[in-house]
Specification:
Aminopeptidase, alpha+beta, 203 residues, seven-stranded mixed sheet, 8 helices
Length: 203
């Protein structure tokens, strides 16, 4: 297995991998697994690959992509809210967005500030059939090297409290440094909360 920069030809496969498991939060926000997957597809396509401000790499075994990782560093590559709204309107229509407004507002209540001096992992996914084979660890080790190369002193990521991958991140040196367990978020989306996990790097 090796890790390489993603290309435009990889987009369809990356979408397959990130949509392999649809989380409860995404389904609650969009209203169905199908709409949640379509939202993710449009978001990946909106980001554009390759993108120097939102770097994407893939793990490949022989001729098959089995994992994907993406990061941004500093204040570059951050999605504007307008981009999200446009995608939501394209999928749900204006009335659909209005109907989902309480859930979207609840999601904002659990938003966690990203430290600007950290390399922020925006995406870490391994295809379902290959999970448990160490691919996630290889991707996170690649991110460590990227952080050192760019001069970042720490890495971070955000995820939900019920994500099974929490144990993977902990094994690879990430600690929960902030928890957003807003009761409105939990009630409307059926998820106990979100966390910020950070890993300090040795200078």
């Amino acid at each position: 297995m090796f890790i390489r920069p993603a290309t435009a030809d990889d987009v369809a496969r990356i979408v397959e991998i990130v949509n392999g498991e649809t989380g409860d939060e995404a389904v609650a926000l969009m209203g169905s697994p199908e709409l949640a997957r379509e939202y993710r597809r449009k978001l990946v396509e909106h980001e554009g690959i390759p993108n120097s401000e939102r770097v994407t790499a893939v793990a490949q075994e022989d001729d098959r992509i089995v994992g994907v990782i993406q990061y941004r560093f500093g204040d570059r590559g951050e999605h504007g809210r307008l981009a999200h709204v446009r995608i939501l309107v394209s999928l749900l229509g204006p009335l659909g967005v209005v109907r989902r407004a309480p859930r979207l507002w609840a999601r904002l209540r659990a938003q966690i500030h990203i430290p600007e001096d950290a390399l922020y992992l925006t995406l870490v996914h391994v295809e379902t059939a290959s999970q448990g084979e160490g691919i996630g660890t290889h991707l996170l080790e690649w991110a460590d090297r990227e952080a050192n190369r760019l001069g970042a002193r720490r890495l971070c990521l955000t995820t939900t409290l019920d994500n099974p991958a929490l144990k993977l991140y902990e094994r690879n040196g990430y600690d929960v440094t902030k928890t957003a367990d807003d009761p409105v978020y939990a009630r409307r989306l059926g998820v106990p909360g979100r966390v910020l996990m950070e890993k300090q790097l040795v200078a």
